[in-house]
Amino acid sequence: MAEMGAFKTDNPLPAPAVTNNISEHTLDGEEWKHRAPYQVQSPDEFGPIKWRAQCKCRRVSYAVKRDKPLNAKFCHCRGCQVMHGAPFQWAAIFHKHDLSFTNGSAGLSFYSASHDSQKYDVPTKVSCSFCHTLIMDEGRNMCLVFPQLIQLEGSQDEQRKQRDAFRPTYVYVCRLPRLNMTVDLSSRCHIFYEQRMMDIPDGITKWSGMDENSQRMDDQGAVMES
Ligand SMILES: [Zn+2]
Ligand SMILES: [Zn+2]
């Protein structure tokens, strides 16, 4: 298990959660600056923008061209709690090509927990070099963006509705009565719920660890029968 060296304890922190089984991958030199989401693109090249996001100091901003994330998760692992200074991380998953940084790679800092390094090396945390707002977790193919940074418009109610596009959704359950089976088709969920700081009684699927290979838990953290 990867550890963040500065925080080594008897209870080592897991690496920030990633969406797929990303192997550690280093690009030679600075080739990555010319790839999504860092390559600078004209508006025509990128296409119509659906969402815009920015850090606290506004020096870093990016555009998103997809209506909704491919998936969304709340991660309760210790790594996310510490890195975000928050009870859990809310991550919305997009392809790298769905995102484009306005200033390319300028003004960004990186932290690879698996290497305890600030050198660009995915998977990595990406933050603003100036105000240190966390911008996203970058994997090899996907970016996990933090929806709190998305700029919303209108009244608070209208903003809540827009924000719903990024939320993990309620479980969609498909019943197959002939086979006496119930299939949960939703992968949007809470993960590492065993390490949670608080119960989240929202009825959404919860896993004790990374995914469905771990134990499924109810809102109070009791293991459910499979
Ligand atoms: Zn900033
Ligand atoms: Zn996590």
Automatic annotation (TrEMBL):
Belongs to the Gfa family. Keywords: Lyase, Metal-binding, Zinc. The keyword Lyase applies. PANTHER family: CENP-V_GFA DOMAIN-CONTAINING PROTEIN-RELATED, GFA DOMAIN-CONTAINING PROTEIN. InterPro entries: CENP-V/GFA, Mss4-like_sf. SUPFAM superfamilies: Mss4-like. GO terms for molecular function: carbon-sulfur lyase activity; metal ion binding. It comes from Penicillium canariense. Gene3D superfamilies: glutathione-dependent formaldehyde- activating enzyme (gfa). Residues 51-164 form the CENP-V/GFA domain. This is CENP-V/GFA domain-containing protein. The lineage of its organism: Eukaryota, Fungi, Dikarya, Ascomycota, Pezizomycotina. Transmembrane segments: none annotated.
